[in-house]
UniProtKB/TrEMBL annotation:
GO terms for molecular function: hydrolase activity. Gene3D superfamilies: Alkaline Phosphatase, subunit A. This is STM4013/SEN3800 family hydrolase. Keywords: Hydrolase. The keyword Hydrolase applies. It comes from Streptomyces thermogriseus. It comes from the Bacteria. The keyword Hydrolase applies.
Length: 281
């Protein structure tokens, strides 16, 4: 596993950003830090890499080992934690007495979660789902998208679709285009393409051979080919503050483990970046 040292992103004053910028949160579901960093260093994800501070991902620890747990934490303001001793100031936090990671630069809200906290200060909150926890096909799959004022999911966005991310991007472009110019936007996209099954993203791979670390990497390259469109849409109306990260990693046979919802290094260690996007001209 790559152990490239990456600097912790300098703190920001989110109270200056919230209210003046649109906000974009992209979770690259199941993306491993080591694979993400290797591809950035090899020049295989140019659209993402040009936005990464120093061209590298920040190494962080996931707040959960699978999608539901991790997203519940992130929507409560607990984004992946820098993988070095803290405490580390948080960008967002619910008002909570005694919090050691809430600072003067933290956007503090008086609601149970970040999504409703942003809605309370004027943001239109929109979810474009990916994996099953966002499919709205049952009570459990409705919890996370139910936090948002507007949510979208269809089978083409899901894990079995070879064109899932480009379909999600097209929906994001539609959402942005239909918003009044003055309306602030918090757009969340859960990218399903990295999640199993992902074998179909690697030319020559077969269903019978299954998913591998190489097909996981190929899925990230597929996502990168369309990431520029998503970022352009997000920054088309006003400057946008973007967070792109993984919710957890996944194992492909390391120490006999496969998948996630386990306490393994490849699951807990994730890539993270935040940056500004201003595509408006």
């Amino acid at each position: 596993m790559s152990t490239t040292s990456t600097p912790t992103t300098p703190p920001l004053d989110m109270n200056e950003i919230v209210g003046s910028h649109d906000l974009l949160l992209v979770t690259l579901d199941t993306l491993r830090y080591d694979v993400a960093q290797e591809l950035a260093e090899a020049g295989r994800i140019p659209n993402l890499a040009r936005h990464l501070p120093g061209g590298v991902w920040e190494r962080r620890h996931a707040p959960g080992s699978f999608t539901y747990a991790s997203h519940q934490a992130m929507f409560a303001g607990f984004l992946p934690t820098p993988a070095e001793p803290g405490p580390h100031p948080r960008l967002f936090a619910a008002r909570f007495a005694g919090s050691e990671t809430t600072t003067s630069g933290t956007f503090v809200y008086d609601t149970p979660d970040l999504v409703s906290g942003l809605a309370a200060v004027g943001y239109r909150t929109v979810c474009i789902g990916g994996v099953g926890f966002f499919n709205k096909q049952g009570p459990l799959g409705s919890v996370l998208p139910g936090l948002f004022q507007e949510s979208h999911w269809e089978p083409e966005f899901g894990v079995t679709s070879p064109t899932s991310f480009e379909a999600q991007v097209a929906r994001a472009e539609q959402v942005v285009a239909e918003l009044p110019q003055e309306q602030l936007l918090f757009l969340f996209v859960n990218v399903s393409a990295l999640h199993q099954p992902n074998w179909f993203h690697l030319p020559g791979a077969t269903r019978e051979a299954g998913d591998t670390r190489a097909t996981h990497a190929a899925a990230l390259e597929y996502v990168d080919r369309h990431m520029g469109r998503l970022l352009a849409a997000a920054g088309s109306r006003r400057p946008c503050f973007a967070i792109v990260c993984s919710d957890h990693g996944t194992a492909y046979g390391e120490d006999g483990y496969s998948g996630h919802r386990i306490g393994h290094e490849v699951v807990w260690t994730v890539p993270y970046a935040h940056f500004f996007v201003d595509e408006a001209r």
